[in-house]
Amino acid sequence: MIEEQLLQRKHERYQVSVDEYKSFRRDGYLVIRGLVSPEEVRELADYTEDLMAGRTTLPGIPAPADDATEGERRHHYERVHMPHRTEEIAERFLLHPHVVDVLEALIGPDVLGLQTMLFFKQPGQAGQGFHQDSYYIPTQPDTLIGAWIAIDPAAEENGCLWITPGSQHEPIYPDCDGVTQQGDTILDDIESIINASHPDVEKNTLAKIALRYDTEVAIPAQPGDVVFFGGHVLHRSHRNDSNKPRRAFVSHYCNARSRVPWNHRGEYDGDEQGAAANYLHILARGTTHLPYAQPKFGTLCAANAPELYGHRFDDHRVKSMMGDDNGFMVVVPHEEVDHDH
Predict the structure, then answer these.
(1) What pLDDT sits at residue 333?
(2) CATH number corresponding to 2-316
(3) I need a labelling partner for 11 at 20 to 30 A (CA). Which of 180, 186, 314, 334 fits?
(4) Which residues of 285-310 are buried (b: 16+ CB within 10 A; e: fewer)?
(5) Domain ranges of the chain
């Protein structure tokens, strides 16, 4: 079955340009317009409409009441966490090959899919204040990245993303609430903050760090545009003050060779499994020495189709840096087993 699918589902690879790569390193984010096709975005939009209308339901989440008004139905959902663990469509977008093509260039070649979120952002719905995603999802080494897919047109009026370029160089600030242990506490003079994600800049003290920067940019987006941003980047969104929704599908990933001591509202036994919660997350691209999960709905990825999405660049042979006949340094594969000693 997998071999038949491989023949049917090969995609035209999206290749990140040098300028795009440099832009991501310089600014901490990258917007790629139209990366997801209109037909695919329409499918996501239809799925959210079915949820709000009660035509489909999510395990463990009550549907809107049968007698709910249209307004009540639209505001029943604000966001849904981890739908890829119960919904085929969410798993498919977590592992979307064009999205993972970009991730492979930015943090790869080995990519682990960690989290999905479906944001509804209906008219009047509040935004989320300044925060850093790596505060919530630690990875070791620190390689977290988000991919934000616009379902609706996103503009300032309906609460688009705002990003602080250059803030990817900031450490992860620890919250001094006495509850959360995240943050780069080994740094000598790092400031503690309170109320990360609170929309009030007077209450969210991470705001004073973000506002030290000269620029904060709005990220308008059209359906199918994808915003990639690193886990350290300071970002936020404002209230939806329009009469239109601003739906988005957001996923998080890391390099598959990072240890991930995180599982959204779930238990895990890292000691028995060998690497924190990695065994719960899906290997999207490349390979890893750590455990990983298989996609529940069979979406093609490195976990179940290594022939297509596994190793791309390495022939697995040990190599050395050696001089060639002209005296220049070159990388030379070891031809003989004895060379490995």
Answers:
(1) 77
(2) 2.60.120.620
(3) 314
(4) bbbbebbbbebeeebbbbbbbeebbb
(5) 2-316
